[in-house]
Amino acid sequence: MYTIWLNEQMIGETALDLPKITPRKLAGFFHPTDVGLTVLPRITAMVPALFDFGDLCRRSGLPCDVDPEAAAAAGFEAFSNSSEGQRLQAAAAVIAQLEVRDSDGRDIAWESILISDATDILELSKRCAHASDVGWDLRSIEDPIRYFISVTFAKSGARRRQPPRLRDPLSAEVC
Fold first, then answer.
1. Over the stretch 118-141, which tens digit does the pLDDT of each residue have?
2. Alpha helices (H) in 22-65, listed in sequence order
3. Which of 91, 54, 116 is nearest to 175 (CA)?
4. Phi (first) and psi of residue 71, to 5 degrees
């Protein structure tokens, strides 16, 4: 079992037991603690913010399909002060502070981490399909598993740079 921490408070746990994506990239269901439920909206905001930022870049004529990394850099340079860019930065600031610990409590270095809310994914799928109903609704499923996590662990021996701590992640503004 792995635990996820923010500012020395455990916000949830996961077995990371879904089929492996690669040897270092694992995914699983995320089970938040009560504290985790209070900060998850700031963390799960990343997925909708990424979609909205991508939409802004496309509307502005940035070629997102040619070189995704170059397009992302150009888009961020052009739109970092937009509400979409600020939402992306706010979510990234909280995510950068997450710690993953193994079952012995040891910190495990990671390269990327994403915790997503299935209700956001549903809404985004409806928007992307340009449909009001994609044929299913999480509210109709009894006891749905709502949160998912994927983690790409750092290569062996790598250490993750520790970002500065937020004073209070609950007070961070998310547009």
1. 888 777 776 665 555 555 555 554
2. 34-44, 46-59
3. 91
4. -65, -40
Give the HSE-up count for residue 160: Cα atoms under 13 Å, Cβ half-sphere: 20
User: Distances from the Cα of 121 to the Cαs of 4, 50, 65, 73, 100, in angstroms?
Assistant: 21, 12, 22, 25, 23
Amino acid at 106: R
DSSP states of 122-141 as a string?
HHHHHHHTT-S--S--GGGS
Amino acid occupying residue 91: A
> What are the tens digits of pLDDT across the range 53-86?
777 777 777 666 666 677 667 766 766 777 777 8
The structure's pTM equals 0.75
SS3 content of the chain, % helix, strand, coil (to 5): 40, 20, 40
